[in-house]
Design brief:
The protein is mainly α and 233 residues long. The protein has 8 helices and no strands.
Length: 233
């Protein structure tokens, strides 16, 4: 694949990773605590809540898990069908994601951030976001760009460290320069979370936090339509 095409795709996925950090900041700090993209956290929140330990709301975690599952199934069906017909499934998935984030913003319009024991509108907003993130996870897994999964950084960080001069492991690409993409993925998630945290701290309403995220996802979809190639090594 053309190197410039690969770089453009990497940049677009890094932008989406930044969006994930922002959305998870909103979910955890303004709607929860609840995850909408990183469902590992919700599985643990649900288990802790059912054990009646940690004062974590099991309902929010359960709602998010179910909503995420709905989004993932719908995304797999929609994007798989679009791919079979030779259509732009990547852009289609992002259009749907942007629409769902906008729906979440509408549900949470004027809603003040609230941490702990979320009210009904907080739960509904988180549910819409989880459906959107179910779509995103399917989209990013279909792209399958190594080092930039867009919704989590644990594997990227592990590969980054394993392939670094400290880890010295060729299985993780030591000596190939592959660490750069992984480092940027971790940085993108961090800056997205930092941005969201600062906006929550500044007292932005939920819709003010989510509408920019929807706009960025929509912009990525529109930019992508100019470069249909998807896969790069």
């Amino acid at each position: 694949m053309d190197v410039s095409v690969c770089r453009r795709l990497t940049f677009l996925l890094l932008v989406l990773t930044w969006v994930t950090g922002l959305i998870e900041a909103v979910s955890l700090l303004a709607l929860g605590p609840v995850f909408t993209a990183m469902q590992t956290g919700n599985v643990l929140f649900l288990s802790f809540g059912l054990a009646h330990q940690g004062s974590l709301p099991a309902l929010a975690a359960g709602v998010s898990l179910l909503s995420f599952a709905v989004g993932a199934v719908c995304a797999a069906r929609l994007e798989g069908a679009a791919d079979a017909r030779g259509r732009h499934w990547f852009a289609l998935g992002l259009f749907v994601e942007a629409a769902l984030i906008t729906v979440a913003a509408a549900i949470g319009w004027g809603l003040a951030p609230r941490y702990g024991a979320p009210a009904a509108r907080h739960l509904l907003t988180a549910s819409a976001l989880a459906v959107a993130m179910g779509f995103r996870n399917v989209t990013s897994m279909r792209v399958n760009l190594p080092g930039v999964p867009t919704t989590l950084v644990t594997r990227s960080m592990t590969a980054l460290l394993g392939g670094s001069a400290l880890g010295h492991d060729t299985a993780f690409g030591y000596g190939t320069g592959a660490w750069g993409r992984r480092a940027w993925a971790v940085a993108a998630m961090f800056t997205g979370g930092l941005t969201g945290g600062l906006l929550v701290r500044a007292g932005c309403p939920v819709n003010g936090l989510l509408l920019p995220a929807a706009a960025v996802v929509l912009a990525v979809a529109l930019v992508y339509l100019r470069q249909p190639a998807l896969h790069c090594a």
